[in-house]
Design a protein that fits this description.
- The structure holds two protein chains of two kinds.
- By secondary structure, chain A is of the alpha+beta class.
- Chain A has ten helices and seven strands.
- In chain A, the strands form two sheets. Chain A has a four-stranded antiparallel beta sheet with strand order 1-2-5-4, with no helix packed on it. A three-stranded antiparallel beta sheet of chain A has the order 3-6-7, with no helix packed on it.
- In chain A, a hairpin with a 5-residue loop joins strand 4 and strand 5.
- The termini of chain A are far apart.
- Chain B contains eight helices and two strands; from the N terminus they run αααααααββα.
- The chains are: A alpha+beta, B mainly alpha.
- Chains A and B meet through helix 4, helix 6, helix 8 and helix 10 of A and helix 2, helix 4, helix 6 and helix 8 of B.
Chain lengths: 318, 209
């Protein structure tokens, strides 16, 4: 009985050592890896590693997970004093929106060869979604930096109440139509190779949604229809409503990203309308030269807003 | 539009000045601000809009008796979208460089409110021939507006016309910035208002004798 016990303990210990060895040789030795600035990747090791091998740039193979055939060029690799932190510098800026795979061909720690280590570096997904939202809302605001949806923008930004009504209606229709367009594009148009039909399909969806909401709202909730009905038709003449599905296709977003992007676009439009209407209410009391009255001064105001929004350009979060 | 129907010539003039889509009706402002940075861009987009406007005006005025009034707006949009797809594919095949410069705007012609508004106001109530001339007038008016803006912005911003350097210096670099489109349109509207004001004054003088 005692013999069996000692045997079992022996087996368990060997198993534990082998398993921990296997773990140590592969992923677990790399504690954390993330992007640093625009052209660097920082890697944290569990223990000190051999400097000579690690600082050799031929020891690495780094690629974007979408195209594994193209290795990214590395300018240099530098190890910190305690041998636990490594910074890889690349010759070109990294496209940090796509995950990168790093392969370290040989890793030696305290005289022990750990073999090949391969791991993926990516930004946190929530952060990425947040940056899409802020990007669509502020950095690439559709009104002030992309100059879309202006006709309706100037038409409905005279009063704050109108601006809020239009903003809410627009955001809701925007999100619904973008999601349906995304679905149809990926599951109907793409498999059938009918991509050239996208303009007709996207605008068709928008006009059908608008018409349907108009009819349903009129019957079900006349009060709500009175408040928002007049803006429904205006949504149709708004470039943003078509630009968003087209941009979603160009950027190749998935369903969640498409939702966040269209929400950001809608909220950004809402924000622009609200800002503009606040200014225009004040402008009515101002002393404007006769030939500049009305739309003319509104355009110049929008230009000033546009200049202010240029300050957001180049901003990136996460 | 009350009283006797306008002649073809009057319809064109109406589009160019009295009801100029950009400066008077303030419709289709997005391209006027966004891509009127050069004369060439203005010309090409104007051409595309002219084509779409004339083609869809004619289509609608031929089909107006068969369209149910309740679903007329979606129908108009689909007709416009079809013609836009036609011009989108042809431009990308024949003028790939210019097509790239104009980016997404060619496809967005669908939502330029000027086209939809002309269909609703004019083509749906008039026979083929006047609709055709109204389309031409509105298209030319749009092209005229775009080219005026392109002319001002390219001349002041880059000192060039159609890509050829004409001025030795770049007088106001600011105008080549996309944001300057807002200011440029604002100033042009003020000019139109001022001219109208002068006309009114002259008319009053005449009335008084």
């Amino acid at each position: 009985m005692v013999r069996y016990k000692s045997l079992a303990i022996f087996v368990l210990i060997t198993l534990f050592i082998t398993v921990s060895n296997v773990w140590a040789s592969a992923g677990s030795f790399i504690k954390k890896a993330s992007f640093l600035k625009k052209d660097k990747i920082i890697i944290f090791f569990a223990g000190p590693v051999d400097k000579k091998i690690v600082e050799d740039i031929d020891n690495y193979y780094v690629y974007e997970s979408t195209d594994p055939d193209i290795p990214l060029k590395i300018k240099g690799a530098s190890l910190s004093e305690d041998g636990k932190t490594l910074i890889l510098t690349f010759t070109e800026e990294l496209n940090q929106h796509s995950p990168h795979v790093v392969v370290i061909k040989k890793l030696v720690s305290a005289g022990r060869n750990l073999g090949v280590a391969s791991f993926t570096v990516r930004k946190s997904y929530a952060g990425f979604l947040f940056s899409i939202l802020i990007g669509a809302m502020l950095v690439h605001n559709f009104v002030f930096t992309k100059y879309l949806g202006l006709c309706v923008f100037f038409g409905t930004s005279k009063r704050k109440a109108t601006a809020i009504g239009m903003g809410i209606t627009f955001t809701i229709v925007m999100v619904c139509s973008a999601m349906i367009s995304w679905f149809l594009y990926n599951y109907v148009l793409k498999p059938l190779n009918l991509q050239f039909f996208q303009v007709v399909i996207f605008i068709g969806i928008v006009s059908l949604i608008v018409q349907a909401v108009d009819i349903i709202l009129r019957k079900i909730n006349p009060f709500l229809f009175k408040a928002f009905g007049i803006y429904l038709m205006l949504v149709l003449a708004n470039c943003v409503i078509l630009a968003v599905p087209l941009l979603i296709v160009v950027n190749g977003y998935n369903a969640i990203e498409a939702f966040v992007f269209s929400l950001g676009a809608g909220l950004g439009y809402f924000l622009a309308l609200f800002l503009m209407s606040s200014v225009r209410e004040k402008l009515e009391l101002a002393n404007v030269p006769p030939s500049y009255q009305g739309l003319s001064i509104a355009f110049i105001t929008a230009g000033l807003f546009g200049l202010a929004f240029m300050g957001f350009s180049g901003m990136s979060i996460f | 539009m009350a009283g006797k129907p306008k002649s073809n010539f009057e319809l064109i003039l109406n589009g160019l000045f009295n009801e100029n889509p950009i400066f008077r009706l303030a419709l289709s402002m997005c391209p006027a601000v966004g891509i009127s940075t050069t004369l060439m861009n203005g010309f090409l987009l104007g051409l595309a809009v002219l084509f779409v406007q004339v083609a869809s005006s004619c289509t609608i005025s031929l089909l107006k008796n068969y369209i149910h009034p309740k679903i007329r707006i979606p129908t108009y949009t689909l007709v416009i979208a079809t013609w836009v797809t036609v011009i989108d594919l042809s431009l990308s095949a024949f003028f790939p460089t210019a097509y790239k410069a104009m980016g997404i705007f060619i496809r967005l012609i669908v939502t330029f409110s000027i086209i939809l508004m002309r269909l609703e106001v004019f083509a749906a109530k008039n026979p083929l021939i006047p609709s055709f001339w109204d389309g031409i007038g509105m298209g030319l008016g749009f092209m005229f507006g775009m080219m005026t803006l392109g002319f001002i912005r390219e001349l002041l911003g880059a000192g060039a016309l159609f890509g050829h350097q004409v001025l030795p210096v770049k007088p106001l670099l600011f105008f080549i910035l996309p944001v300057a489109g807002f200011f440029c349109v604002g100033f042009m509207m003020a000019v139109y208002n001022y001219v109208e004001f002068l006309f009114k004054k002259a008319k009053e003088k005449k009335m008084r004798g």
